[in-house]
Each structure stands twice: as structure tokens, then as C-alpha cells.
Amino acid sequence: SWGRNVYDSISKFLVFQLTVNVVAVSVSMVGASALNESPLRAVQMLWVNLIMATFASLALATEPPRPSLLKRKPYGRNSPLLSRIMIRQIFGHSLL
Q1: Is the entire prediction scored with pTM above 0.70?
Q2: I need a surface site. Which of 45, 73, 80, 91 has the fewest CB within 10 A?
Q3: How far apart are CA 45 and CA 53, in angstroms?
Q4: Which phi and psi angles does 80 have, rounded to 5°?
Q5: What is the DSSP string of 5-58?
């Protein structure tokens, strides 16, 4: 059950982290085109990325495995790390 829990935690972390990065890049691009200068400097973007990655990893690393994980079929060895649903979630949450 721990292996499946780790896999789920990594998937959740990737969705969260990629959503934050898509939003940061979008804000920088829209701000740069509207203001002719980026609203976030490179160091500020690195700090946002560092803080968000730290809190997300701490939250997901402390999540205990659920008994229902063993009832689910295991993922295949060649299954993609990001599924289509996860990609839709990333861009859908980025728009909100």
C-alpha cells in the first residue's frame, strides 16, 4: 500500500506544482505584454516555486495510505506519469 500511496502523492505533487508554474508563467507573459515589463522578477519566481514545492511536498509526504488503495488495480509499468485527466486539471485550475 505504501508504493501506491507514494505514486499517488507524486502524481498530486506534479499536478499542484505544474499548475503553480503554469500560472506563474502566464502572469509573467500577460504582465510583460501589458506592462512591457514582467511583474515577477526571476528571484521572486524562484521563491514562489521554492515555497510552493516545500509546502506541497510536506503535505503529501505526511499523508498515510488508505485501505482502498489495495482494491484499485496497479498502474502499468509503461503508463504515462501525467494522464489526460491530470493535464486537463492542470490547465483547468490554471484558468481559475
Answers
A1: yes
A2: 73
A3: 12
A4: -70, 150
A5: HHHHHHHHHHHHHHHHHHHHHHHHHHHHHHHSS-SS-HHHHHHHHHHHHHHHHH
